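Handout, page 2. Input:
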Amino acid sequence: MPRLLTLFLALPILEIVAFALVAATIGVGKAILLQVAISAIGIAMLGSLVSEAKTEARRRGGLVSFAMDGSKGLRGLAGLLFAIPGFITDVIGVLALVPEVRTRIRRFLGWAEVAPATVHPQTARPARKEMLDLDQAEWREVEPARRPER
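Output:
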């Protein structure tokens, strides 16, 4: 634990050194543009995961869930690492996308491969935005209110 804390606290200094090395190699302007582009990719990856979760929730008629399991969790981690400015976090993000490294990270963290949840065919209905779908026990019919006569 102390090693991890030391690495976490040293990360900003290491990122500055890495940026200086990259800037010395390709130029300051290109290094800044590269960092902005990689951050934009990370934000797009996170947005894609949110869109997927919303689509899945609509398809199943349930709530949006952001589980950190399976490949989506590591894709989310990679997107987050890309969104954080810095070349070292970008390298760690790329590693989180490599299938062999993903397997080792899952094993290290104790995450099991998660099979997709099965939905009972009678309860699975396509959800539409303009339609509120309720089960028989969730509603009751009410007589319309009469308007007062003038």
